[in-house]
Write a structure and sequence with these properties.
globular, 17 helices, 15 strands, 494 residues, alpha/beta, binds 2-acetamido-2-deoxy-beta-D-glucopyranose, protease
Length: 494
């Protein structure tokens, strides 16, 4: 139980975090939505910690999977989704793009938006990757596709695009899904549907996939992978669990050929990830010894119920961090009043969120994407999150025996869901080590480090923040290529 004082303290730390990280909030709202969720769990003591089969699969039949078997109809829908060109796209685009809605319920109320880019070369043999961003409530299209691993980046004029040399469609066909309904262009015409949580998100993402495969039948049996970051540390293992459970007893063409999942800077355990964040603040010199000692002494990270002293020290901790980009502690922050921007191949422009938001709100862009006119924002303001397990570790642990490959990767300059959080989470599973800790190489440089456990691999990406492909595009591409080929990234620099 919380005293009134303690709830006030929580409120204070929320306000402080939002104010102090205001600039970075603008730069990336994914984790602030996560923070708000954790705060609401604390104040409402909502704790849905169960990981039973029933948690994900109760009252969930295949009834919403479209029974549309009309091949020609599906072909027409697919052709209608083809994007001729995005406004302002550069010359030399040599791959196909599709964008549109997929209905996921029988009443056709919920419509989920997808953006799909094929690989320019050998797309018919390359794997299919679904990318998911977190929040909860943030857009995989606005972040993943337009700022991280997609084929384009929005230029600072917010009107033109440039090619991302390290786009993941070099090695895969990549599908971006805005999920659940209420995020980005995805919507429902019944606002009751905006009351959602992990369970419904997994359920409708699964139905989305089944229906998407009807529109793109050539991908039905393709090797399929799910990757993403942040709160997708919930979405990805949960969706994988639903897919594998639903695959049981299905005919081969109804099976989703899931081969692996890769989770970047994932929020996978409320308590261990919080503890890891404060420890990272200390080890990277964002916090004083006194504050670290205070947190060590007063915070237990065993439940949401912490003492007033703990709340106070956490408050002090945020204040000490100051105004930096917490998602990449060494990066510049966005300053819209300066003209000195440095958008170049390897330096991520911290104002990208602004350019993307402005670009995606242009009527001609929305028309090209085949969406209904929408005030698009990177993270949703309409969702009420109803369920979220305290820990996803039991789900991840359950997947380890399924034979799919499981990679947890971590940009090592992210302060929001840092490497320490991921390490504490994995360490709590006490898994036997199969591959000893070693560096991995990207061309002549160390791209990061890795360690292989039984059924699970941890990799760091050196010098990358929360959005790994934004900050280290080349290293991220090397890493994901290895992942898709089912092998570890290079052992040496030769
Ligand atoms: C948090 O810090 C602010 C200013 O630094 C202070 O006004 C506030 O009372 C603090 N709250 C708690 C619970 O310590
Ligand atoms: C929602 O949209 C579907 C089709 O787009 C329509 O059949 C249904 O009646 C709509 N419902 C409401 C409440 O507007
Ligand atoms: C495409 O496939 C062909 C035939 O399998 C192969 O020879 C070629 O190297 C592939 N190209 C790329 C870029 O993967
Ligand atoms: C909207 O959804 C709620 C909850 O499922 C349902 O009770 C209600 O009838 C729906 N309204 C419409 C107009 O479909
Ligand atoms: C933003 O840039 C302007 C112009 O260079 C400068 O005057 C201002 O101090 C900067 N603001 C911040 C918060 O860095
Ligand atoms: C979500 O919660 C807010 C207040 O917490 C409430 O005003 C709003 O109506 C809720 N929305 C839905 C869709 O339940």
């Amino acid at each position: 139980m919380f005293t009134i004082l303690s709830q006030k303290a929580l409120l204070w730390s929320l306000i402080l975090l939002v104010c102090h990280f205001a600039i970075s909030c603008k730069a990336n709202q994914q984790s602030e939505y996560l923070y708000k969720l954790i705060q609401s769990k604390k104040s409402q003591e909502k704790d849905f910690s169960s990981h039973e089969e029933a948690y994900y699969l109760s009252d969930f039949s295949d009834e919403y999977v479209s029974h549309e078997h009309d091949v020609e109809q599906q072909l027409r829908l697919k052709e209608a989704d083809k994007v001729k060109a995005l406004p302002g796209q550069p010359k030399g685009v040599d791959f196909d793009q599709y964008a549109g809605y997929i209905s996921v319920d029988a009443k056709e109320n919920r419509k989920l938006f997808y953006y799909f880019v094929e690989s320019p070369l050998n797309s018919s043999t390359k794997p299919l990757v679904l990318w998911l961003n977190g929040g909860p409530g943030c857009s995989s299209f606005g972040y993943g596709a337009m700022q991280e691993l997609g084929p384009f980046r929005v230029n600072s004029d917010a009107k033109t695009l440039s090619l991302n040399k390290h786009a993941w469609n070099k090695v895969a066909n990549v599908l971006f899904l805005e999920s659940p309904a209420g995020v980005g262009f995805s919507y429902s015409n019944n606002t009751s549907d905006y009351k959602v949580g992990d369970k419904t998100t997994a359920r409708y993402s699964y139905i989305f996939l089944r229906n998407w495969f009807k529109r793109f039948p050539q991908y039905k049996t393709r090797d399929f992978f799910i990757a993403g970051e942040s709160y997708a540390g919930h979405y990805i293992p949960q969706l994988a669990h639903v897919i594998l459970s639903k695959n049981k007893g299905k005919k081969s063409l109804e099976i989703i050929n899931l081969k692996g999942i890769a989770v970047g800077n994932g929020w996978i355990d409320d308590n261990l990830c919080s503890k890891g964040m404060y420890d990272y603040f200390w080890t990277t010199a964002l916090n004083s010894d006194e504050t670290h000692n205070g947190i060590q002494k007063h915070c237990h990270f065993k439940s949401y119920d912490e003492s007033d002293e703990c709340d106070e020290y956490q408050n002090i901790s945020y204040n000490e961090v100051g105004n930096i980009d917490i998602y990449n502690i060494y990066a510049p922050v966005c300053n819209t009043s300066t003209t000195e921007t440095s958008p170049s191949e390897n330096i991520f422009d911290p104002c990208s969120d602004d350019y993307t938001t402005s670009y995606l709100n242009q009527p001609k862009v929305q028309e090209a994407l085949h969406v209904k006119a929408t005030k698009w924002s990177p993270c949703s303001n309409v969702l009420n999150w109803t369920d979220s397990p305290t820990s996803i570790l039991p789900t991840i642990n359950g997947l380890r025996s399924s034979g799919i490959s499981i990679w947890l990767f971590s940009g090592d300059t992210d302060g929001r869901v840092p490497i320490t959080s991921t390490r504490y989470s994995i360490n709590s599973l006490n898994l036997p080590i199969h591959t000893a800790w070693r560096p991995w190489y990207n061309y002549k440089e160390v791209g990061g480090y890795l360690i292989g456990y039984k059924g699970l691999t941890l990799l760091t990406v050196r010098g990358a923040g929360h959005m790994v492909p934004s900050y280290q595009p080349q290293r991220a591409l090397t890493m994901i290529s290895s992942f898709l080929q089912g092998k570890l990234p290079p052992k040496s620099d030769s």
